[in-house]
Model the fold of this input.
Amino acid sequence: ERLGEADKALIARREKVLGPAYRLFYEEPLHLVRGEGVFLHDASGEKYLDAYNNVASVGHCHPRVVEAITAQTAVLNTHTRYLHEGIVDYAETLTATFPDALSQAMFTCTGSEANDLAVRIARFVTGGTGIIATDLAYHGLTNAVAEFSPSLGESVTLGPHVRTVPAPDSYRYSPEEMMEKFGRDVEAAIADLKRHGIRPAMLITDTIFSSDGIFAGPKGFLKPAVDAIHAAGGLFVADEVQPGFGRTGEAMWGFERHGVAPDMVTIGKPMGNGYPMAGIVLRPEVIAEFGPRARYFNTFGGNPVAAAAGKAVLDTIRIEGLQQNALEVGNHLMEGLTTLARSHPTIGDVRGAGLFVGVEIVSDPATKRADAALTTRIVNGLRRRRVLISASGPRANVLKIRPPLVFSRENADMLLEALEDVLKTA
Ligand code: PMP
Done:
C-alpha cells in the first residue's frame, strides 16, 4: 500500500506550515475525515477499527455529545464569572462519581494545565517544592509540568527539585515484590529530597502508568507509596487523565482500584469526548487557603459549552453502562490475547484493566528481551489491516490498546483476528 499523490502533497504542505515539531503516526500516515462510534474513515473511504483513541471515549461523534455542544453553542458561551447553572450541575454530577472526600472541582482546558495548577496548590499547601514522579511519566507540556515529565526525553531537563522512581513493572517483578517495591522507591526518593534540603510537595502518578508501559496490578501496590508521601507531609496527586472516566472497568477512577485516597485528582482527555476540557477534583481542605488568594481564572475552562459537553459524557457513560462494558469487553480481549500468547511466544505479557490493555512484545520470553522493531511492524501491520493501536513503554515494545469505551466483543474479536494475522508475517 502506498500513499496517494494527494496525501503526499498534504504532508508537504503540513511540514512547510506546521514545522518540525509535528509528527504523524505510521509508516503510511492516515488521512482521516470522519468518525462514528469505534470506526474512523479515511479520505479514500476506507474504514478503520479504532482501538487506540481514548479521547473519543463514548465513541466518535456521539450524538448526545454533539447535540449538547451545538445546542449550548447556539445559546450562550462565556466565562465563569457570571452565574450559570451548567457548571454547577456538571460539577455536582462529576464530584458525585468520586469518594465523598473529593467534593470540589476546578476546571481547565487541558490536562497539562490541571497538573500545572496541582503543582501550585501542592507547593502552597505543603510549603515544600519537591516532586516525585515515575521514570517515564508524562504529565503535560507546560514548563513546570515538563520538569517532571521524563518521557519528553532530552528535550527537557528535569527540575532540581524532581526525583523519579521506576514504574512498578509487573512483568519483571513478582506480585509480592510489586506490593513493596514502589513504596520503598518512593521512600528513598523522599529521603534523597530531604538530604538535599528539599521538602516534598507531592507524589504524582498516572494510576495506570500508561507512558511507563501500562501497569495495572496487583491492585493496592500504590498504597505504601501514598502512605509514604503523606507521612513526609506531601500530597498525593492521582493523574487520571488517561485511566479516568470508567476506562479501567472495575471503578470509575483508576486510584479506586488501589484503595488509596488522593488529595487531588487531575482529569482531562475523555472528559468532553474531544471538546477540550480538563480539571482537578480535590479535597476542600486542600484548596481552602490557596483558593481565596490564588486569583484563579481560566478564560475557557468550565464555560457553558464545556459543562454541557462534560455532562453529556457522564450521562452517556451511565446510560450506556460503559464502565461495565469496559470491564466485560476488556476481560474478553485480555483472555483472547492470553490465548494468542500461548501460540505466539513473542507475546511476553498481557496486562491491563478494563479497556486499557498492554501487550509486551519480546524476542525471547525466557530473557524477556524487548523487541521494539517487531512491535513497530505489528502496529504498522495492524494499520494496513485497518485496525489502529500504538505502542509505549521504556523499551517501546508494549502494544497500547485503549479503544473508545463503546468497543464491543465483536470489535475485540476483529482486533484479535487482525493481530493473529499480523503475527504470522511480522
Ligand atoms: N497526564 C497524562 C497522564 C497524559 O497522558 C496527558 C496527555 N497525554 C496529560 C497529562 C496532558 O494532557 P493534555 O495533553 O490535555 O495537556
Notes: The longest strand covers residues 356-364.
